[in-house]
Amino acid sequence: MLAALKSTVIPDGWLPLPVDPNTTNPLTRAYRYRGMVLLRVHMLCGLQHWAQFRGRPSDVIVASFPKSGTTWLQEIVWRVVHRETGAQSGGGRTLEYRFPLLDLPATARIAMTPLHEMESPRLIKTHLMYHLLPESVHTSGAKVLYVSRDPRDVCVSYYHFQRMVDYERYRGTFAEFRDKFVRGEVMNGPYREHVRGYREQADHVLCLTYEELHEDRVTAVRRVAEFLDKPLTQEEAEAIARHTDFENMKKNPGCNFKHWEQTRMVKTTDEGTFMRKGQVGDWRNYFTEEESDAFMKWVNELI
Ligand code: PPS
């Protein structure tokens, strides 16, 4: 894998983005592929992984732009599908193992079940833009859920995440990161097109927001259950809502990503942990009023 990452052959359709000196992992190179920012690892391993994907009617796919509440919605979906209402979930197995990523196959650092070996119903996570989902997601009748979040909070959360993870080791300032976000050069961007692509499909994609998971999680859990045809009692919905609050998920080794500190996915914990703050509005600590207005004007031009 290391040798492959160093290789310089770039297939057609992959446009290298300018090298960002703030990304201090020298092996990380970003490309634009069919309108989406992806890394060399996607080019070398991801493309083939999506091509080999064979959708099943019972598949459930949780999609998002990074840092929008993916893990939160995944844990809710897992519990709804498996009717798990206790404090722990998934028999202690990590979320990435029981809810693997479509975008990349398993690596030494990320232990995921191979998709073709999973029993149905398969629960699958993706950050791919809607137009890049494999055709069989659509033809199989798989169910797709999408979560989005106030883009200012996404940007703040992503900044800390990119500083924390080894594959990026971002060392720029928040302002530099925000400019990169707006230029559409952060991994899995561009943000606005990502969100718009899924929201345009809201007639068959269940679109939820991070903020509504905060405000009224019982209702959100019930919406998920209804969409997935997995009826729950009111008591079950309330238990799932309770066990998926921030403090409980932070304590749950099945979904708090603490194991990344052992697998070296996390380079430093100075930025906090994966379950960092879990708040609505942390952006106020990072944007001035004028910066927020300009950022939201940019967002609202497209979505
Ligand atoms: S990833 O890497 O894209 O899958 O990240 P993602 O899960 O989308 O986003 C991580 C942020 O979601 C917060 N989070 C939660 N907030 C509130 N309640 C619960 N239960 C919860 N679970 C995860 C997590 O803390 C990250 O946000 P920040 O703002 O960085 O704290």
From TrEMBL:
Matching PANTHER family: SULFOTRANSFERASE SULT
Gene3D superfamilies linked: P-loop containing nucleotide triphosphate hydrolases
Domain Sulfotransferase stretches: 57-301
Keywords: Transferase
Keyword Transferase: yes
Organism: Amphibalanus amphitrite
Family: Belongs to the sulfotransferase 1 family.
Protein name: Sulfotransferase family cytosolic 1B member 1
Family annotation (InterPro entries): P-loop_NTPase, Sulfotransferase_dom
Xref: Pfam families: Sulfotransfer_1 (PF00685)
Superkingdom of the organism of origin: Eukaryota
A GO MF term: sulfotransferase activity
